[in-house]
Model the fold of this input.
Amino acid sequence: MVTRSLDVRKKALNPIPISYLIQTANRFDCDIFVTDDKKTANLKHYEEMKNLSLYGFLTICFKGRDETEADNCIRKILWQDEYYM
Done:
């Protein structure tokens, strides 16, 4: 299991579409859960993600066969200014 804690407050000016995060997460064979201050959501499910705040401190847990690759990819999306690769 890989767990990351991120502060994405700086991305508030350039929000990342959750649909892009969901599509990216679904490319990997692992479970990915995101926790904000109050809730936990499965990154692969739109209904759960739309109620999550992506503009503060987040904890992301990856568990599965390609968790390291998923971690690297999601982290790049959250930290790069241009997320369309």
Notes: The mean pLDDT is 84. Residues 5 and 28 are 20 Å apart (CA to CA).
